Prior knowledge:
Blueprint lengths: L1 H28 L4 H22 L2 H21 L1
Amino acid sequence: MYMLKEKVNKMLAWIGTICGIIGSVLVAANNGFQFVGYVSFLIGAMACLYTAIIRKDNSAITLWGFFTAVNIWGLINYV
């Protein structure tokens, strides 16, 4: 069971990383896909926040919690 949880956590961390990269490119490109970029950013931040909570990494929890809040704020401002 522990191995499965660790694999899921690693997978979520990579999903967060990939979504964050995609989101940053879409927002920075300013090509009409900013909404999709913010959603991708938000998914990535939430995935990384979850893995930080599981790992009990307080500095990462602070960082990804802040990024999650800022991404929500960005979505609200964009809409």
